[in-house]
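Sorry, any thoughts here?
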Amino acid sequence: MEGGYLVVGVMDKTLEIVGTDTYNYDVQKARLRLISQCTNLPSEGLMVEEFVTSDTCKTVWVIHVPKHLKRQPVYAHNKAWQRIDDSLIEMTDSRKNTILEERDDTAFDWTAEVIDDATLDDLEPDAILKAREGYKQRFPKLAKVCDGWSDKVFLDKAGLTVGGKVTRTTLLLVGKETSAYKLNHIAQIVWKCFQDGQVFGDIYTIPFVLTTTELLHRIRNYRFKIYPKNSLIPAEVWKYDTESILEGMHNSIAHQNYEKGARIIVTEDKNSLKFQNDGTFFEGDYRQYITGEKTPKSYRNPALVKAMVNIKMIDTQGYGIHKMFVSQKERFLPMPDYDLSTVDEVVLNMPGNIIDENYSLMLLANQDLSLTDAVLLDQVQKGKGISQEAVAMLRKRKLIEGRLPHIYVAKDIAQATDQKVEYSKHKGLADRKCEALLLESLKDHGSLTKQEVVRLLWDLLPDQLEDKQKNTKVYNILRKLRESGKIVNITVGNKSVWSLAKI
């Protein structure tokens, strides 16, 4: 009735680990099998965990069983079941009627609760201005009249307040940082950044309508170029799409399970962004939203979602995830990933690099490729399983090569485009090209000071490097050439200069 856990491979009472035969099923196949064979079993929250003992290599499965959907008994083998003590019996009429007659009470909405000791003085004026801008973009026909509304009227119209009263939604979106304590919630987004062997970050709190943009500007985003061979005009794309970054943060805010009191975490590393928030998908799972065809019927935080829609922070038509996938496809990058192994949180990974060059070349050469095809090819490049039907379809169209389970994105089509992917500005020229340029300059000029060498190579070095790192890079190039006997450091007058070694 309320969900629970099923442990397979451990004896009752004695807890002796006897193991179990999983019948060639892995945990993902088992989960899909359970969903297909157990009518009304929710996919949200359903997970199979596998444990293997280190001494006897016996396998134990722990199946996380979610609570049944309202007014829908779960059927297995075409029958509904219930337990009485340790006995499993077909569901009694009284139990079945209890489920079928469940009341559909209005769910508690944490974000709609009025904060008795909060007033309009607890709100940040700049955040209200930002919310007004979003409101006018969402409702352009009301833009002029909106300018004439007082803050009190506007806040009610936008759903940020209710009858002039401040709610948790109000403080989350436009509240002053100094008033955050009135939420009785931590209300924070933690940003962690892993770059060049260093770890740093920051903490952002309310008002989220402003601080999410502040966090956006901290994320290291830059352009790189995709060069078609024999062409002087490259395709230049951003590592991350700005709208997608905000979509990830705003969705985390909108769908967070605030009753758990957890923080939202945004993790940035060299090649990806990760967004984590407590609470599973409230309706369906992410795959149903990729094509943009599914529209959710309900939300975990209706009051917060309504206000965020009104001030143009999110979309309620189910297009947010769809737009993220389309953006990755249009920039020839891997698709976003949602980690399905987590039970009580949503984890979104957004790649910012190229995994398989052939995949990116394929998207570049075939820009009319459907989003569905792009998603399937993305699964292939990441080594994830796809259905045999999908394999047959992609193989027939010569989009993949190899034999199961070792399939990969077709190389012949990618190479036939005669195009090459290069990380241009951010990657910089290869060390050997910098060395060649330096040697050529020394041949032309006879000698160069260290400052002149730095000026010569500076703009050719990767633009994501900091000044200190660029200086270290120049030092390493000079040291390598000196140790190889190609250049020497000499003193001319009072100056130390570099020149070609005499052979």
About this structure: The chain is about 35% helix and 20% strand.
